[in-house]
TrEMBL record:
GO biological process: peptide catabolic process; proteolysis; regulation of blood pressure
Enzymatic reactions: Release of an N-terminal amino acid, Cys-|-Xaa-, in which the half-cystine residue is involved in a disulfide loop, notably in oxytocin or vasopressin. Hydrolysis rates on a range of aminoacyl arylamides exceed that for the cystinyl derivative, however
Topology within the bilayer: Single-pass type II membrane protein
Protein name, per record: Leucyl-cystinyl aminopeptidase
Family annotation (CDD domains): M1_APN-Q_like
């Protein structure tokens, strides 16, 4: 039998227990006369029936019933487990939350629920309703709970209803006053629930007062127009002092000016109004958590007026790689010297001078630097004048800059030399410390050629009168595109004909091409916010390879780009990936945007689009984009709009590209051939599907500009195109074909699975591999190994496909095959499957042995041949294949006997040094030569060789020494750790090193930076056990919340899980047939 609603209702709300204690009861219930009991009872707003006060049962509701059906998750707990009348609730125990309405009743017993008790659940819902303003859906359900007039309760009279309504309104008012008002502080943004929340909205400044701004992004009421910046770095005390005058314009009336400042000791701050003669003192508030300061004006700042903020400050030159930082190096006489340089992108301009440090807040800059008269000072603009200040100190004043973002401001103070050449009205100069000045000529020639190319291609002149390129002795990234003053790591700018290899030449050319492209993409037109960083970096990367192909076709840089795309796709196929354009706010999130996806995926999407739109349309589109937004900022949509201007309705580029920019990952296209019909189908490529993401993963849809070729027409001009904008489609060919290859030259960002047709392609490669281009061959190798990881294709077939490699002579397919086989070899080796790993190496020896034997130990041949030789011999010597080590050790010993004066083939130095470093004597000698070498190209090969030793003490010493920046600079650390973690003796050491030095590492390199990303991924990438998975997870969880939330940490965990999955899927099979 079911108890009536009234009875059960009384059970919970019967006075005087619960109701007497909770004002919420009075909100919804009022006294009435009850006909059943002939006395007074309680009527409630949702039932309308009168409930007798004395009807009270002691029934307990099952706990799970209450928790599951009645209330939401966690929250504030009200314990109703005990008999309500005996234990009335205290008001404090009930937290009324108007915003989230969360309340939980817990501990009501553990009964099984029977039919009768279902009604109690209904009552429980009612109880919930009486407290909280539930959804309308629930409210509708309440209609079913209304008591029939024939029941035990009477329907209240009209008079009662009127009286009750009046009581109801009064009670609500009282509740509002008692419960809401004291907790509500009305601010500009409305009512905030509690004072506690108020603190979150307006945090406390360092002096204990309320800081008038709580967001990471700056308010939009004031914008900067111009900065006058004066700096005096002291390379003896390693401190600097500065003063800045910022002219700002007021857009909305306000009393505060909020801007960025980090780690600066501000000694004076004042404000001057336009035309005002006297600077008025202001109150300065600091909120270091957001790197913000607030200038509190004595009176309201008027809309449309300009004001000048004057700030004087001092700080130490930084010992990290950010802001205005110091570098120690040895000069030609081995004396210690200091070098001061800047690196502001993304968020470090604020640590050199107070500023509005957001990319869209562009302004002009007038910079003055006081320096020792023997040193050189450089900044973005040409020098206007040099004036003496005091004994030995002079001041350089630079011309006022163009309108630009703060992260592009730069200055360098050091002992420098340069060479220069003029082109198209701009003076190009390359600077280096004196002992390196004979290595800058290649960079100067390359820069001039590329600058001319870009000006013609964009149809916009480089707007400054000078362009300086400076080699910085210690630099975290490869280079930085500061407008007019591009800074480089020495290895990416200095070319030494004796020691720089073919690969080094490519690297220098690529980095210069990248940074010069930024002078337009990034400097002239800047992304509005860091979420669209790809507009800067994707474009610069795309232009880097495009310009190299156009200006230096002999470098075959397109093959390098291909290999980079493969690596970016590996990252993008994990759950930890992110859309190219992703919302970011915190500094770690912004730092983490500088990853392979912004750079390489961004670039490869542009490559795909260029091929689809055609060369001319693409070029015209980017001209329009640059013209439309010059000296301003842009979002992704602005780029698509510019493209749509050119396509003029024939193609909606925005619609097409949004599927690529806003989706993470990429599609897997499955192709099934049946006569003339080719069925194609797309799905998301994911190594590992997580059950909770299954639905969202399945709903992905890309608009894929497919390309394909067949045996009927296998030259590049015969490429066919098809836009797949549905989940599946059928292409009808004019005739039957022997084979079909999609994604011609890998110009599209997707992977293709040929279902039953892989055998045809494997046979094609065996019979006539040149029927496909080298890039297509590399593409097939990459795709089949990826499909094998996914379990869609057998690893056996993947190995069969590369059997043709004996005939291969192109770099791209060979390097891709070596990369895939090395991944497998490394996993097996670290898993303790030494025999199986040896079988993989035997297979490689079989495939490439002849090719290795054919190599000469010289620098002869085309750049492409030299590069391939360098890769093959370094691999062979590392893994002791064929006679590599014998040849290498002979050369190393001769070099050692000559005390390093004998010149070695630059392309083979790496192979020779790796072999030489296997002995103790060789390693020590190499380290000695490293310390004295003036060639950065040579030093970088030495570092790799030193880090490839199997002596664990030496490995530990190397990592620690580099972190301290003693013999080996800290800029080399991530390279060292990456090399150490590849080897069997080193991979656990590398992880231990990262763990033990985590605090030091994040202080030096910043959480989320590219270096930290690399350190985490390389030191964990070889793990393939659940124990390691747990260890890595636990380690980062034990660190700060910011650390455990890093995307690269998630990626590291994804990679380990993938490795585990790969082993489970393939180990047994490999043991059988390899
Ligand atoms: Zn860049």
């Amino acid at each position: 039998m079911k108890p009536t609603f009234c009875q059960t209702y009384v059970l919970y709300l019967s006075p005087p227990s619960f109701c007497s204690a909770s004002p919420a009861f009075y909100l919804f219930c009022w006294p009435c006369s009850c006909s059943t009991c002939h006395g007074w009872g309680w009527s409630c707003v949702l039932t309308g029936c009168c409930l007798c006060k004395w009807l009270r049962y002691q029934i307990q509701l099952p706990r799970n019933m209450i928790e599951n059906s009645m209330f939401e998750e966690e929250p504030d707990v009200v314990d109703l487990a005990k008999e309500p009348c005996l234990h009335p609730l205290e008001p404090d125990e009930v937290e009324y939350e108007p915003r989230s309405s969360r309340l939980l009743v817990r501990g009501l017993g553990e009964h099984e629920m029977d039919d009768d008790e279902e009604d109690y659940e209904s009552s429980a819902k009612l109880l919930g309703m009486s407290f909280i303003n539930r959804s309308s859906g629930l409210r509708n359900n309440m209609a079913g709970y209304r008591q029939s007039p024939d029941g035990s309760c009477s329907v209240p009279s009209t008079r009662t209803m009127v009286v009750c309504a009046a009581v109801f309104v009064t009670v609500i008012s009282v509740i509002m006053v008692i419960y809401l008002l004291p907790k509500c502080t009305f601010t500009k943004e409305g009512c905030h629930k509690k004072n506690r929340t108020m603190e979150l909205i307006y945090p406390l400044a360092t002096n204990g007062k309320l800081f008038p701004w709580a967001k990471m992004r700056l308010p939009s009421d004031v914008v900067p127009l111009h900065y006058d910046l004066e700096l005096q770095p002291n390379l003896t005390t390693l401190k600097f002092s500065g003063s800045v005058k910022i002219v700002v314009n007021v857009l909305q009336v306000t009393r505060k000016i909020v801007l960025h400042s980090s780690g600066l000791n501000i000694t004076k701050a004042s404000l001057t109004s336009t035309g005002g003669r006297q600077a008025k003192p202001v109150e300065l508030l600091e909120y270091p958590l957001h790197d913000q300061i607030a200038i509190m004006a004595p009176e309201a700042l008027l809309v449309g007026q300009n004001y000048t903020v004057n700030i004087e400050y001092s700080a130490n030159l930084s010992d990290t790689y950010y802001g205005f930082y110091k570098i120690s190096y040895k000069d030609e006489d081995s004396k210690q010297r200091w070098f001061a340089a800047t690196q502001f992108e993304p968020l470090a301009a604020r640590s050199a001078f107070p500023c509005f440090d957001e990319p869209a807040l562009k302004a002009t800059f007038l910079i003055k630097i006081k320096r020792d008269e023997k040193l050189t000072a450089l900044s973005n603009m040409p020098k206007k004048a040099t004036t003496p200040v005091t004994n030995g100190i002079v001041q350089d004043e630079f011309f006022v800059s163009l309108k630009m973002s703060t992260y592009l401001v730069a200055f360098v103070v050091a002992d420098l030399k340069n060479i220069s050449r003029e082109t198209n009205g701009s003076l190009v100069s390359v600077y280096a410390i004196p002992q390196h000045i004979n290595q800058v000529e290649y960079a100067l020639n390359t820069t001039v050629k590329l600058l001319e190319f870009y000006q013609k291609y964009f149809l916009i002149d480089y707007p400054l009168e000078k362009l300086d390129l400076v080699a910085i002795p210690d630099f975290q990234s490869g280079a930085m595109e500061n407008w007019g003053l591009v800074t480089f790591r020495e290895t990416t700018l200095l070319y030494d004909s004796k020691t720089s290899s073919a690969r080094d030449k490519k690297l220098i050319t690529a980095v210069i091409a990248h940074e010069l492209a930024h002078q337009w993409f990034g400097n002239l037109v800047t992304m509005e916010w860091w979420n669209d960083l790809w507009l800067n970096e994707g474009f610069a990367t795309f232009m880097e390879y495009f310009a190299m192909e156009e200006v230096f076709p002999e470098l075959h840089s397109d093959e390098d780009f291909l290999n980079l795309i493969f690596k970016a796709m590996m990252k993008d196929s994990m759950n930890s990936s992110h859309p190219v354009s992703s919302a970011v706010q915190s500094s770690e999130q912004i730092e983490e945007m500088f990853d392979a996806l912004s750079y390489i995926k961004g670039a490869s999407l542009l490559l795909m689009l260029k091929n689809y739109l055609t060369e001319d349309v693409f070029q015209a589109s980017i001209e329009v984009y640059l013209h439309n937004h010059d000296y301003g900022s842009a979002q992704s949509d602005d780029l698509w709009d510019s493209m749509n201007e050119i396509t003029n309705g024939t193609l909606d580029v925005k619609k097409l590209m949004k599927t690529w920019i806003l989706n993470k990952g990429f599609p897997l296209v499955t192709v099934v051939r049946s006569g003339r019909n080719i069925s194609i189908q797309q799905e998301k490529f994911l190594y590992r599907v997580e059950p909770e993401n299954w639905t969202s993963d399945a709903s992905y849809l890309w608009h894929i500009p497919l390309t394909y070729m067949t045996n009927r027409c296998n030259f590049t001009h015969c490429v066919n195109a098809y836009l797949l904008d549905q989940k599946s489609a059928v292409i009808e060919l004019p005739e039957e074909v022997e084979w079909i290859k999609f994604n011609v030259d890998m110009n599209g960002y997707y992977i293709v699975h040929y279902a039953e047709d892989w055998k045809t392609l494997i046979d094609l490669l065996k019979k006539n591999h040149t029927a496909l281009s080298a890039k297509d061959r590399a593409n097939l190798i990459n795709n089949i190994f990826n499909l094998a990881s996914l379990g869609k294709e057998s690893l056996e077939n993947a190995f069969e496909l590369i059997d043709y490699l004996k005939e291969e002579s192109s770099t791209a397919p060979l390097t891709q095959a070596l990369f895939q086989l090395s991944l497998i070899y490394n996993l097996l080796e670290k898993k303790g499957e030494q025999q199986l790993a040896a079988r993989v190496m035997y297979r490689i020896d079989n495939l490439l042995g002849n090719k290795i034997d054919q190599q000469h130990w010289t620098d002869n041949g085309t750049l492409s041949e030299r590069e391939l030789r360098s890769i093959l011999l370094a691999f062979a010597c590392t893994h002791d294949i064929r006679q590599c080590r014998t040849a290498a050790i002979g050369m190393f010993e001769k070099w050692m006997k000559s005390d390093g004066t004998m010149s070695l083939p630059s392309d083979l130095m790496k192979a020779i040094f790796i072999t030489g470093a296997k002995t103790n004597e060789g390693w020590e000698f190499l380290l000695k030569m490293y310390s004295s070498s003036v060639s950065e190209a040579e030093k970088s090969k030495m570092i790799e060789a030193l880090a490839s030793t199997e002596d664990v003490r030496k490995l530990i010493w190397l990592m620690h020494n580099s972190l301290e920046g003693e013999v080996i600079r800290a800029q080399e650390l991530s390279h060292i750790v990456a090399t150490v973690s590849q080897s069997l003796p080193g991979y656990l050491l590398a992880w231990d090193f990262v763990k033990e030095n985590w605090e030091k590492l994040t202080r030096k390199f910043h959480l989320g930076s590219y270096t930290i990303q690399n350190l985490i991924s390389s030191s964990t990438s070889q793990f393939a056990t659940r124990a390691h998975l747990l260890e890595v997870k636990t380690f980062f969880e034990s660190k700060s919340e910011e650390s455990s939330k890093l995307r690269c940490v998630k990626e590291a965990l994804d990679t380990i899980q993938l490795n585990i999955q790969w082993m489970e899927r393939n180990l047994a099979k490999l043991q059988k047939w390899l």
